[in-house]
Description:
Layout: H1 7-26, H2 28-56, H3 59-96, H4 98-103, H5 156-246, H6 250-262, E1 273-279, E2 284-291, E3 300-306, E4 311-316, H7 319-344, E5 352-362, E6 369-380, H8 381-385, H9 394-400, E7 404-405
Parallel strand pairs: 2-5
Antiparallel strand pairs: 1-2, 3-4, 5-6, 6-7
Amino acid sequence: MGKRRGFFAELTYQTQQAEKRRRQQEAAAHRAHLAAQRQAERATKAYERAQKEAARSSAAERKAAEREAARLHVESRLAEVESMNASLAGDLADIGGLLAWTLDMDDYVDLESLKISTVEHPPFAPGRMAISIPIVAQPDYAPEPVYEEPAAPSGLSAVLGGKKRHQQAVEAARTAFADAHRHWERARDAAHSSYVKKAAQREESEAKRVAELSAAEKKYELECEKREAEASAHNAEVDKLINALAFDVESAIQEYVGIVLSKSVYPEVFPVEHDHVFNLASRELSLEVSVPEPSSVPSVKAYRYVKVKDEIASTNLPVREKKERYANAVWQVAVRSLHEVFEADRAGKIHSIALAVGVETDDPATGRPTTVPLVIVAADRETFNSFDLAKVVPQATLQHLGAAMSKSPFDLLPADTSRGVRVRGQ
Length: 426
């Protein structure tokens, strides 16, 4: 069976997967499974610690440590069994409550709720682009050398050759000053040149940063505008669907049913798929529902730990119980599918539903894919809405509606449609 989901139906389907996980996590069976799982993990870790302790112990202490490790091993295996049984109990409870699962919620879909009221934009995160490159510091120039001429000789020193020696000292001082000044100038010019180069590089890098930041801001603005435009276009499509539904456009009614069915939450252990076609002339919805094969449904009644073999064994459900459990699940799916569509269609646009519940499998004769019909039933709105589904037995409800029903869904015996399905059961 090919799934036919429109855009809004697919959107609703994805949202409902999160809702399904939430409801499953809130279930008592799920909480029990998690608690048992945590206990199993704690017991396993305790056993592993005891093993290590035994390996480190002396010969005298080893036997006691090994006994403790063996005890903890049994404890961990029993905790594992408890976890498996809790998970199994949750799965079996889910399968047994397929109809009750949906009765506590309204299946009507307010199409206005599909609109995007607020567009969520991620914060603008420019990162390092937002940080200005530090300005290059002015160089710390060494002080310019100052010429200091040697003091002139006086008195007797001037008479005894001091003037000549002074002249020589002056020449030497001037030469040293000239050398020192040239060295200072070279250092000053080199420092200034390095400063100018670094400043130019900084200006270039800063200009590049500013340009990149501006480009990033523009890109972010365009992305925000795109999200806003997409939201507006989405909301316009919702308005279009609402308007078309109000005027009984066939495709709009079909799309609405797709949204309703995509909103239907089934447990992971019993996945269900829908396909449908609405005929405006007859006001009838043809609905096909695919349920999982019997082999994919849990057949284990309970798990137990066999100490002598150190293994976990299982006890299978009796064949009769497996058949009854699977058949009851199929009957529940049929009644639930009718309920979900009729309850969601508050405007009464769908007058009747022709429902077929089947299993997709391989034909044992040809090996080719085939669908085995397990329930085929027709129901009109007025009759079905008069039922109190909280009190019904799904099998009896279908019989009352004159459904063609498989005598053994578990064995994939097809429903007998030779009598037709629009006759009320006697």
